[in-house]
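Dear colleagues,

As part of the handover before I leave the project, I'm documenting each prediction I ran so the next person doesn't have to rerun anything. This entry is a single chain, and its sequence is reproduced below.
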Amino acid sequence: MSSVRDSSSLPLPDFICEDGTRLSVRVRFSPKARRWRLSLGFQGTLELVLPERQRRRYSLSGEGIPSVRTERELTAFVEERRLWIQRAARRTRAQRESYAESKTAGLPTHLDFPLARELWLLEYQQTESDTVTARARASTQTLRIFGAVGNEQLCCHALVRFTTRHAKEVIPPFAWEIAHEVGAKPQSITVNNRKSAWGLCTAAGDIKIDRRVLFFPEDMARQIVLHELAHLRHMDHSQRFYDALFSYNDSSKEAEHSVKQGIRFVPAWFIDGVR
């Protein structure tokens, strides 16, 4: 049985697909949730999110174990969605395997940012601090990680903070160059932190690109930018939108499809560091 014993989650039995794939199940309460929802993460965890107002009804016992009634009710909800879960598991198998392979490597020895054509070397230094800090030397593309470097989670957080800062320096100029090339005129281009889509174009003409795009090959990052620029002409995903998108140089159905597999370029330490 997989269990996460804290005040905001419940342990439930693992979910086993017909092909033998085993997925851990995590139940979390969220003040933003209005109804029960289920998602499958690339770490191989099924997350069932419940509204915060239901915390009392499904509260943990003193030992952190759900009651038999609670476990039965939550497990039944998951089981009713077996077909969806198994389809999602098949669809994300490659991404989950990529994550698992990256996870076994542990903390990185370097940061590869293909979009910026940069390779940053990492130096870890243990100090008496109980925090972890990342300090960059741009001239040598070296990043010194110092502090409580024995704490892998703190190191991941520090690496994510550096990556986020660097993404804000690299991605907007890259996207603006493409916008000028195709004659598009967005109101702004910024970097944000998204959980699903790689980009966003608002009705006001503001384009936001996810920070994780910094890990992508240049051609894939270009397709993401072109996709959002095409939304300046058509806000939906109609045939007119795709006609506009594929009229751009180097944009194609194949390139658009490859973007959907982009998560395989995001290392496990980054995924873990944003939790």
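Residues 1-8 have pLDDT under 50 and may be disordered. The chain is about 35% helix and 25% strand.

All the best with the project,
I.
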